[in-house]
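Researcher: For the record, we're logging two predictions in this thread. I'll number them. Prediction 1 follows.
Model: Prediction 1, sequence and structure:
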Amino acid sequence: MEVSVRELKARLSAYLRRVQHGEEVVVTNRGMPIGRIVPVTPEREVTEADTVRALRRLPWIRAGSGGRPLGAADPLRVLPGEKTLSDIVLEERG
């Protein structure tokens, strides 16, 4: 249903009752739509389990085993006097 701004201002309560009963109201100004009043959809609490299920459905997500990461098979050795990446980052941050 469409209603002008003037009509909406004059009968706001009546239009809000219609929205409350599931109807959508498009507000117009000089015949051009400028807004929409829609019923509120009931919000459902999102649980941690819901979030985990949603993440597992994503093709680029792999579930972990729950253990600690193994690390690199052949880690680089930092020689005495060499800066580590964390040292460089800390210097850049100042």
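Researcher: Logged. Prediction 2.
Model: Prediction 2, sequence and structure:
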Amino acid sequence: MSSTKASQYTVAKVLHWIAGAFIGFNLMSGWRIATFELNVKEILISIHSGVGIMVFTLMIVRWWWRKKNNLYTPPNWWKRWPIVLQWIFYPLLLVQPVLGFCVALYNDYDVKAFGFIDISSLADSNPVLRALFFDMHTWLAVALIFLVLTHGADRLKTLFT
């Protein structure tokens, strides 16, 4: 492998772990936010939504980097489970923040990503749409947790084989 290709894979790995940390944080933090008082919930949602925007941006950057440098595209890639899993992750990790954005859009309290991007002011509160997007956001989070655990188990398996 050339030095250039090796450095391209290194960048891809760094982006992977940064995105993974943010994704893990948001998947774990989202479950209990609803149980807090409104003033605390607004702060936690601000952090959660800001991290969601960062995940969305990182996934776009990661996809662009992989495509630009022709990474992880071996012949017969569809026969390799880890690569197929990655191709499942990418669209889902782009859809999940969009669903979260839609939840925030129709929320009945302020949602300010990073503390200053007022998402909730972009549309009027709509409990029906909020509930729809919230349910979709929740079910996709469950699917992503399953996929993350599957990905982790697959990677651990390679350590022992």
